[in-house]
Amino acid sequence: MISEKLIYDQYISPSKNCGSFLMRTTKSLCPECLAVIDASIIEEDGKVILEKTCSKHGFFKDLYWSDARQFKRFDHYCHDGRGLMNPTVSIDGNCPHSCGLCTSHKTTTILANIDVTNRCNLNCPVCFANASASGYLYEPTLGQIRKMMQILRDEKPVPCPAIQFAGGEPTMREDIVQIVKMAVEFKFTQVQMATNGIRLAKSQQFCNDLAAAGLGTVYLQFDGVTGEPYQIFRGYNVLPYKLQAIENCRTAGFRSITLVPTLAKGVNDDQVGDIIRFAVKNVDIVKGINFQPISFTGRINKEERLEKRITISYLFKLIEEQTNGAVKASDFYPVPFVVPISHFITAEKGFPQVEFTVHPHCGTGTYIYVENGKIIPITHFIDVEGLLEHIDELALNDDKWLGKSLNKIKRISSLISALPRYIDMEKAPKSVDVKKLFIDVLGGTEEAIREFHHHTLFVGAMHFMDLYNMDLERIKRCGVHYATPDGRLIPFCTYNTIHRMEVEKKFATPLIKAKAKICS
Q1: Residue 423 has what DSSP assignment?
Q2: pLDDT digits (tens, 9 = 90+) for 357-416
Q3: How far apart are CA 90 and CA 400, in angstroms?
Q4: 122 within 8 A of 82, measured Cβ to Cβ
Q5: Tens digit of each residue's pLDDT (9 = 90 or more) over 32-69
Q6: Can you say how many angstroms the Cα of residue 345 is from the centroid of all Cα atoms in its chain?
Q7: SS in 3 state form for 220-256?
């Protein structure tokens, strides 16, 4: 067993509903007044349901996970992180309205988002931010952006390693290349940009400039392989722009694009397999897919929510069906599953590493090798559970009498001798030395990690919460934070449901004045 304290108990007591069971209690928000209220997470007919009652606005019920078995499997990998040693907000006890981060937050910033503008060249109904809809311009200055980066890199015990520029559409800023260069100067390990790809498609030189500046990953909005989903989500068929953006990035020398499909039932849930196959065909540059089931940012009735809600476990079903079983639900693990790797690298290097201690029901992923067009999930030739358990034991059971150097030799030697027990070389891809690559990755070098990603395709999902399925235990363990101009770090889901408008208005310019400023 992984030697971390599991924070949840299964089956506390039967619920008041016949045939259902209370799995645990939590705190949530009233979708109407945003009051913090009690909530129950219940197993009901093989599904996991979140129920809550506001004294003013009544009863709310929503689907949390569509498969209780997968929910419980993921529960096993809960890890509590230590949070920040230097939190940016000292006030505690008013979660989530005092987000900042406070002392009760349990995970450091794994990925930081900085919204560099709320301007956009699309007008998508599913978007979090849009200047034309809000009536004001939010566009932090270079000085404010620099201060946000400094706060992120000053985090203790581990500086934030990865940054993503978002919006709005970040390419609307003429100085976005300069902003990317700034992030590289701050030594972020990963520099990403979330984009709809339109400007990338229109200008090869722009792609060249971004690559030269040090942009590592293009996080490309990609809703399907036909035009129909874009008509619904984006207002017109922008697929040709996506394809051209990929080609321009390839020409510019990029080697990392992550496709980001927003998923909705009846819109593009039938294209999950096709999106994976598209990525496989372009695996020289497409290194990841991050499916994002749609979250409901506006008011919507219970029947419509339950009908349209896509959960992570439902996505597993879609993937398994649409890849003809080549990728199965059992191939996926929650994000904190990889915490033992952080423990091992920490022991090897002698100083703290980023630990992916996010809530197990926030996100999931697996790695796939692509060999001669064939999909080989890493779980098909590696006993990942046994291997990571062994790695964790090596990391956490140092012999203090041996000394640092001998401990390191002992760990690596033990790992090398143990690998044959966990890797089936007959089923492994033949184009890469899997054992050597895995040992190099555990050495923690950036070169080894890049080499690993060169040979694999990441397939994952992040299910962001809305006010109907909000679970504050997930908020406390969020590892994706927005940096704001007033020096705060705010978890992703509370920023987009509660804090975004307040932050943007505080630093906004009225749109009429902003247009005059932009045009002049």
Answers
A1: B
A2: 999 999 999 999 998 888 999 999 999 999 999 999 988 876 544 456 657 778 888 888
A3: 36
A4: no
A5: 999 999 999 999 999 999 999 999 999 999 999 999 99
A6: 21
A7: EECCCCCCHHHHHHHCCCCHHHHHHHHHHHHHHCCCC
Query: Would you place residue 92 in the very low, low, confident or very high pLDDT band (cuts 50, 70, 90)?
Result: low
Whole-angstrom distance, CA of residue 344 vs CA of residue 409:
13
- 113, 189, 367, 444 from 449: Cα distances, Å: 22, 11, 13, 7
SS (H, E, C) 378-409: HHHCECHHHHHHHHHHHHHCCCCCCCHHHHHH
Q: Is the pLDDT of residue 427 over 80?
A: yes
- Cα separation, 312 vs 48, in Å, equals 12
Strand order in 58-65's β-sheet? Answer: 13-14, 20-29, 36-44, 47-54, 58-65
What does each C-alpha distance from 53 to 12, 39, 62, 296, 464 come to in angstroms?
20, 7, 12, 19, 22
How many other CB atoms are there within 10 angstroms of residue 279's CB atom? 23
0.85 exceeded by pTM = yes
H-type alpha helices, 120-197:
131-134, 142-153, 176-185
Nearby residues of 234 by Cβ (< 8 Å), 6 or more positions away: 122, 124, 196, 223
Angle at 484 between CA 479 and CA 489, to 5 degrees: 30
Q: Which of 88, 17, 8 is nearest to 334 (CA)?
A: 8
Token pair belonging to 298: 């506006």
> What is the distance between the alpha carbons of residues 67 and 311, in angstroms, rounded to a whole number?
9
Domain boundaries, the chain: 13-75, 107-195+478-520, 196-291
Both tokens of 130, joined, read: 């849009």
Q: How many whole angstroms separate alpha carbon 202 and alpha carbon 210?
A: 14
- Residue type for 458, please? F
Report whether 2 contacts 336 (CB < 8 A). no
How many helices, marked H, and strands, marked E, lie in the chain? 20, 20
Q: Which residues pair with 166 in a beta bridge?
A: 115
